[in-house]
Design a protein that fits this description.
Radius of gyration: 31 Å
Number of helices: 10
CATH superfamily of the largest domain: SPOUT methyltransferase, trefoil knot domain
Number of domains: 2
Shape: elongated
Order of helices and strands: EHEHHEHEEHEHEHHHH
Largest sheet: 7 strands, parallel
Oligomer: single chain
Distance between the termini: 81 Å
CATH class of the largest domain: Alpha Beta
CATH architecture of the largest domain: 3-Layer(aba) Sandwich
Strand content: 5-15%
Helix content: 40-55%
Number of strands: 7
Length: 259
Amino acid sequence: MADPKAPAVILDAPQLGENIGAVARVMANFGLADLRLVNPRHGWPQERAWAAASGADWPLNAARVFESVAEAIADLQLVYATTARPRELQLPVLTPREAAAGLAEAAAADQATGLLFGGERAGLETSDVALCHAVVTVPVDARFRSLNLAQAVAIAAYEWRMTRADAPPAAFRPMAAPADRAAMAGLFEHLERELETSGFFHPPEKTPAMVQNLRAALSRARFTDQEVRTLRGVVTALSRGRGKVLEKLARTKEGRRGG
């Protein structure tokens, strides 16, 4: 569901319908719906945008077209321009995370906000950046700074989303609580008893240190009660299997002596 306080996404002179559709798809992923297009090169609407959106139609269906950036942002009270190009303008430079925090603060004060993105080839004009309150730059590797349009929108939209929902989707089951120390003690004792029987602790004088290391390693895993029960079942199965092997060997030896 789209967030009514989410920032508008303004695309200045986007060139390809496929890129506009990819942006709409990203917007839908992160709860943004207000898409504004400034002079799209091939006009609007563009059939390829809907095909590229893969079902994320609502930002495209409601998209508005403007003749200038100034018109597209006229009703907004806070606008950030996203660009990787250095500018001579005296504007704050923010990471996407810092920008998201600023957008969230403005939204909490019932201010309308927006994120301005340049076209695929030329980016943003300095005159348009000057209309904004700050510049947002993704901290990409200096060896390859190029991001495609949808990637840039995705990063900004994700950071915005994280200010609104900092928990995983409800579809994921929450992690069960770790087992209590009594359950873990039972696992330790069970495992150590079977290891002792199998002759694992050798030489004997190193047994205390080996036990401590095993317990520390198992404790770090923070097993749940179900996992503890499963592991104890594994230990039991292995010990029974060892017993059967020993019984078979004993029968074989008896058979040889009898023969």
